[in-house]
Automatic annotation (TrEMBL):
InterPro entries: CysZ-like (IPR050480), CysZ/EI24 (IPR059112), DnaJ_domain (IPR001623), J_dom_sf (IPR036869), Sulfate_CysZ (IPR022985). It is found in: Cell inner membrane; Membrane. It comes from the Bacteria. It is a multi-pass membrane protein. Residues 346-399 form the J domain. The keyword Chaperone applies. PROSITE patterns: DNAJ_2. This is Sulfate transporter CysZ. GO terms for biological process: cysteine biosynthetic process; sulfate assimilation. Keywords: Amino-acid biosynthesis, Cell inner membrane, Cell membrane, Chaperone, Cysteine biosynthesis, Membrane, Sulfate transport, Transmembrane, Transmembrane helix, Transport. High affinity, high specificity proton-dependent sulfate transporter, which mediates sulfate uptake. Provides the sulfur source for the cysteine synthesis pathway. GO terms for cellular component: plasma membrane.
């Protein structure tokens, strides 16, 4: 089985894709609306207070200093925007915490096909409002206590700003990892312990989040994106194997190609099983060489050609029309793909399921994969047909 390591920043990018998926968008709307309301309210309050201050200043300054107003207002507006952009996230996270927990739950359901054993979305949200806000306050106190020494170090040239950035990265990793991990009952100390065990990954995720927080407008999206990305990171990197539904990797074998599909990232790779490039991985083979192999597949094995086309389209951005006609003078061997159909082992490999997977797990794996591979969503007719056939074979075997 092939594994594709994903960096912390990669999980944040994955979160950006996840929040646009059907079934997830509605759980993103409330946190985004809260961000906009809090930001707008902070700007309104700041400008209102400053107007009063300016009126007081005008009443006490000589008339000939009236030009100062034209200098002070633009400077104030700039400072206000900077201050609000970089601080309103604390309050937004506090208020939106219950919604973030629900968002993490829905993202995990989409990734794994397994619902967390909880009932009633919004009724439960109201019931957990108090405990969730208490947890958020606990995280806030933790962050503030650690901020004190790092604030003093901030005045140390070069080293101070770097340490402050690392502190911010760690706090953001803790903040957003708490939502998916907290949904499974992990306490704050245990969350920190797990993140410390994967420091590079955790700091990479937090650093990417800190960078996104520094970009005006983009930082409005940080909260839902980071929650979704942290959930994907939890499922793939931190969750124990006992709770993980199968390998989360599909394997489609043809005569020339073993194609692998990562369920979480949607990334494809594989191994070349026959021909002049035997033994190479797809990722390590140049596009020109793969196109040469594709030409061989066109002439000898249509199923391998379809699998390789799917990889080249998805990972290399290649576009294909109808396959070239097979020369009449060429006598191709009987394609190994001409067989009665999938057996159960092949079907389980395609859906990424263990031998004891039940009907619910089969349906969930099929639903998860078809969302990624359906032609209407930029997927592949060939792979979608394989996923559908695998579901049919496995469900039929359980009747």
């Amino acid at each position: 089985m092939f594994s594709h390591p994903i960096s912390g920043a990669g999980y944040l990018l994955q979160g950006l894709r996840l929040i646009t998926r059907p079934g997830i968008k509605r759980f993103v709307a409330v946190p985004l609306l809260l961000n906009l309301l809090i930001f707008s309210a902070a700007l309104y309050a700041g400008i209102s207070q400053f107007e009063g201050l300016m009126q007081l200043m005008e009443s006490r300054l000589p008339t000939w200093l009236g030009w100062l107003e034209w200098l002070i207002w633009p400077l104030f507006i700039l400072l206000l925007f900077v201050f609000v952009f970089y601080t309103f996230g604390l309050l937004a996270n506090l208020i939106a915490a219950p919604f973030n927990g629900l968002l993490a739950e829905k993202v995990e359901l989409m990734l794994t096909g397994r619902p967390i054993d909880q009932e009633g979305d919004y009724a439960r949200l109201l019931a957990e409002l108090g405990p969730t806000l208490l947890d958020e306050l606990r995280k806030l106190v933790y962050a503030l206590l650690w901020a004190i020494p790092f604030l003093f170090l901030l005045f140390v040239p070069l080293v101070g700003p770097l340490l402050w950035f690392l502190y911010t990265a760690w706090m953001l990793a803790v903040e957003y990892s708490d939502y998916p991990m907290g949904n499974h009952g992990l306490r704050f100390a245990e969350i920190r312990r797990r993140l410390r065990e994967r420091r590079t990954l955790s700091f990479g995720f937090g650093a990417a989040a800190a960078g996104m927080a520094m970009v005006p407008v983009l930082n409005f999206l940080l909260m839902p994106v980071a929650v979704a990305g942290a959930t994907a990171m939890w499922v793939r990197e931190f969750r124990s194997s006992n709770g993980y539904q199968g390998p989360h990797e599909s394997r489609v074998a043809t005569h020339y190609i073993l194609l692998t599909i990562d369920h979480l990232s949607g990334r494809m790779d594989g191994e070349i099983l026959a021909g002049p490039l035997t033994g190479r991985t797809l990722d390590a083979t140049e596009t020109g060489e793969l196109l040469g192999l594709l030409d061989l597949c066109y002439r000898t094995d249509a199923e391998s050609a379809e699998a390789l086309e799917a990889y080249l389209t998805h990972e290399r951005g290649q576009r294909f029309q109808e396959p070239p006609p097979r020369p009449d003078t060429e006598r191709a061997p009987p394609p190994p793909s001409d067989r009665p159909g999938l057996d159960e082992n092949e079907a389980r490999a395609i859906l990424g399921l263990a031998p004891d997977a039940g009907a619910d797990a089969i349906q969930a794996a099929h639903r998860r994969l078809i969302q990624r591979l359906h032609p209407d969503r930029g997927g592949s007719d060939y792979l979608a047909a394989k996923v559908n056939e695998a579901k049919r074979v496995l469900l039929a075997s359980r009747v």
